[in-house]
Amino acid sequence: MKIVPSERLQYALMGPDDAEDLYALDQDPEVMRYINGGHMTTRQEVQDIFLPRMAKYTRHDKGWGLWKLTTTADQQFIGWVLVRPMDFFNEQPQWHNWELGWRLMRQAWGQGYATEAARHIMQQLSETQDVQVWSAIAMPDNQASINIMKKLGMMYQKTAIHSDPLGDEEVVFYQTP
Q1: CA 122 to CA 6: how far, in whole Å?
Q2: Can you give the pTM of this predicted structure?
Q3: Of the chain's two ends, which shows fewer C-beta atoms within 10 Å, N or C?
Q4: Start-end of H helices in 19-166
């Protein structure tokens, strides 16, 4: 599966060779603020937790995984967009309801990159894959991510506990109509 470039970004599914980019992204406490309270990820956590977890849901044929975002203008890594079935790590994954998530370097915030990337990936995958609904979750205080969800046409569904093997969190759920 390939995602053609959008106006300002190029896309590639991430793998083990991207460990250093994954580590670098998680070294800003503000980037991690709504992920885990601002704790920076260690290289060991990238190797022992993040990469094996990513390998479980990456499916090149479906477009599932972390889509690396690189600026077209200067080839800079600025973050990623997640695509996988909602509730993938739970007993009943929602195979036709796909989750979108994003994490960007702070210097890329406020420039529309997350919205551009998520919208573009949604459009590209919706044309070739059996996805019926797109969903996203965020911490209730993460207004920047909630704004992106709204820009993507998602609507608030509920505030509830999202169960995950890495820990359960209260989040807001948004979804396309």
Answers
A1: 12
A2: 0.95
A3: C
A4: 19-25, 29-36, 43-45, 51-57, 113-128, 143-151
